[in-house]
Structures are given as structure tokens and as C-alpha cells.
Amino acid sequence: MVKICCIGAGYVGGPTMAVIAFKCPAIEVAVVDISFARITAWNSDQLPIYEPGLEDIVKQCRGKNLFFSTEVEKHVSEADIIFVSVNTPTKTRGLGAGKAADLTYWESAARMIADVSKNDKIVVEKSTVPVKTAEAIEKILTHNSNGIKYQILSNPEFLAEGTAIQDLFNPDRILIGGRETPGGQKAIQALKEVYAHWVPEDRIICTNLWSAELSKLAANAFLAQRISSVNAMSALCEATGADVTQVSHAVGKDTRVGSKFLNASVGFGGSCFQKDILSLVYICECNGLKEVANYWKQVIQVNDYQKNRFVNRVVSSMFNTVSGKKIAILGFAFKKDTGDTRETPAIDVCKGLLGDNANLSIYDPQVTEDQIRKDLSMKKFDWDNPIHLQPMSPTVMKQLNVVWDAYAATKGAHGLCLLTEWDEFKTLDFKKIYDNMQKPAFVFDGRNIVDEQKLREIGFIVYSIGKPLDGWLKDMPAVA
């Protein structure tokens, strides 16, 4: 029986290995992590991450050919194929701080693999890593090989949270990069045979190592660029009276462009986009490509601008102050159908409003109060470090209240901000909400999910990203 071990039981490792176990019953899959709490959760009825369809798959395979364990060295030693899916946070100090990926955890994993291995291994990069990481890992393993042969493969993930299981079942492509040597090609074939259990052969793309590593960064950079592009247009739409949804629809009908990732919003979030672009910027700078680095930097700058613009619009619309006012925040996750809050634009929006002394009442159907308070207590990039390096106890914020009902969040509020496109927000009884809010009552739609005309008929003053401005807002332009 082929044995697979995945180091790292997070958003990538857990779902990916669960699907491999489900689709390949003849393969034994072990997911290992040093976090006892995380592994305990994977072995419980309350999984550590929320992803539609994931729970059913885990329950069908767990204990049969899918195992979650803290016995890291044991499972690594026994495995034929080792996926490494550890954190690669953005460095917060030293060379490349604020841009370069920190490969401390990757290096530790590689050294541990070398220490415990007793037979030849295929080591697969599953984390998002800078180009040439495989070369560094290869050197560590080779210089500590004790006669054991290692083949390094790059197999980046292209999952979208909220649809991860669907993406794994029916992927656009599986990308496998390896050395162009007999050993490297044999390793590629071995991993290809795993995916071939359910993925058509024409969707499995094989490349050299460096192309695979760079393709992941490039894909995320291109997607983030589209979001920043339409968000830049949303600002121009507001200034000219155009409607960004109409512009996006017209542009998206061009088959050369396509309609995906053209929805204007308060900004992009998630664990990958910003981190991968920063890594790309650093790689460009290290290779003397200053102009290319500046180009990609602008994608992040527009994203930050969009979040700041949203906060400025809220404050300026409400008589240029939100001090002491209750603002309801509906949605804290970075997108619907996930409880993930990493780099969610809600963090910057909430911090901006708290900075003006607003009182926030937050509701999200999948994010806990502890997570919200922790996120608002952290410094930038801290979220990507292991739990033991994060704040132990979230700062007590008297201006912050987390509730488990949208109506409780909005009761007595002066304004409400829609920051995640949860489906339930589209069907709220806004008449009921309006009746229980302070007047004038404001709605700031950061996801363009409400019918602004209907809300105006109820009595709301409405701001929707990139839409023609409410007469009230024209008189109170956003502060630059």
C-alpha cells in the first residue's frame, strides 16, 4: 500500500488529503501537525475549518485510510510521498521584511524529514513558496541524506475557499513540477498516478520545478490584479455617475477578458493574494526588475486604497464623525462560505472605524468572537505565524460587541456595513432593520449584494461600491 503523509493540517493540507483518501481507498493518508488542539479537532465532530462538503468526506474516510495524528516523525518515516503544507509567512524582520516569505518552518520540516527517513522519499511542496525554494530544500536533504535519495516536486494548490471540495473533485488543472532527470520524471509519474484516480490526464500539467513554483504566484497575482482593476474603476464610476456592475458586465462579455473576478468590492482578502504578490515583488527586486516589482506593488496599493476609501465614505457620510455611534458590521470572513478571516478587508475597515471611536456590533455566521477579537488585536502579518506566536488573549475592546444575529447587530445602530457576501444577508428584512435603527439610517454595501433602490424606498441612505451616489452622499464627498 502506498503511504502518503502531509505535514500541516491547515486549510490546504486537511481538505486536499481528505479528498485524496476519498478518491484513492488503496492509499493510506496521514495528516500530521504539532498542534495537539488542531489534530484533536480533526478527529472530532467539530472540524477546525468550515468548508462545504468537507465534513462528510472526512467522516467517511477517517479511521479507514485517513488518519490525523501528532506523531509527526512516525508517519513521515513510514511515508513514500510526503506533502509539506506548512506556513510560509511574510517576514516581519530581517532581510526582505514585509515582502519575502519566511521559510523557517519549511527548513525545519526538511531537516526533520532527513533525520527520520529510512527509505527513499518523494517530497512535495504544497505550501506557496518563492521560486527556487525546491533547490534550497534539495540541498538540505542531499547534505543530510545518509544514502537516501530524495526527489523534490512542486504541486501548488489552486483552491478557492468556500468551494475547495468542489475544486478538488473537479480541478481546472493539477500542476506538477519536477527535475528533468530520470529520477525527477519517475517521481512526477508517481504523483501523477495518485491524481489520475479521478482527474483526466489532459488536466494534469507537468513542468519543470521553477515553472510550477512561479505559476502559483503568477495565478494569484493575476486574479488579485483583476480585483484591483475593477475596484479602481469603481472609484471612477462613483465620480462620474457610471455603474460599476454595468461596466463589469459589458467588459466581461468580451471573451478575451471573461466575467470572473470582476465584482467590485471593499477589497480582496484571504491567505494568498497579498502574501504571494509581496513574495513576487521581492523576487523581482532581488533579480533587479524594479519596474516589474513596482507594477505588482500597485495591485496591493489599490487594494489598501479601496479599504481606506470605504472607511472614509462611512465617516464623511455620517457628518464626518462616527465617534460614539453604533455601527453594525455584517460579515467578517473574507468571503462567503468560509470561516477564514486571514487578511479579510473587514479587519482594516473595523480598525479604521474603531480609530474614529465608533462602537462596533459585529455578526458573522461562521466566525467566533474570540477570532474576531484576536484579529483586531494582531499586528500585520502576525496571523500567518503559529498559534504560540500570536497574541494569547485578545485585547479587551469596550467599543466592540460580537453578536449572533443580524437583527441584534443592527438594533439601535446609526449605520450598517455589509462586508461579506453571505447569502443570508440578501434576504434580511430590511424594513424591520430600518425601524430599529437610529435616523438617518445608513447602509454601506461593500459587496454590492443589496437592492439599493428598494432600500432607499424604505428610507435608508445607501452607499454601494461603484454605484451612482445617493443624493445625500454627493453633498458629503469621501475625504481624500
UniProtKB/TrEMBL annotation:
Gene Ontology biological-process annotations: glycosaminoglycan biosynthetic process; UDP-glucuronate biosynthetic process
Pathways involved: Nucleotide-sugar biosynthesis; UDP-alpha-D-glucuronate biosynthesis; UDP-alpha-D-glucuronate from UDP-alpha-D-glucose: step 1/1
Occurrences of domain UDP-glucose/GDP-mannose dehydrogenase C-terminal (ranges): 328-452
Protein residues bound to NAD(+): 8-13, 33, 38, 86-90, 127-128, 161, 272-275, 342
Keywords assigned: NAD, Oxidoreductase
PANTHER family for the chain: UDP-GLUCOSE 6-DEHYDROGENASE, UDP-GLUCOSE DEHYDROGENASE/UDP-MANNAC DEHYDROGENASE
Family statement drawn from the similarity comment of this UniProt entry: Belongs to the UDP-glucose/GDP-mannose dehydrogenase family.
Protein name as annotated: UDP-glucose 6-dehydrogenase
Lineage of the organism: Eukaryota, Viridiplantae, Streptophyta, Embryophyta, Tracheophyta
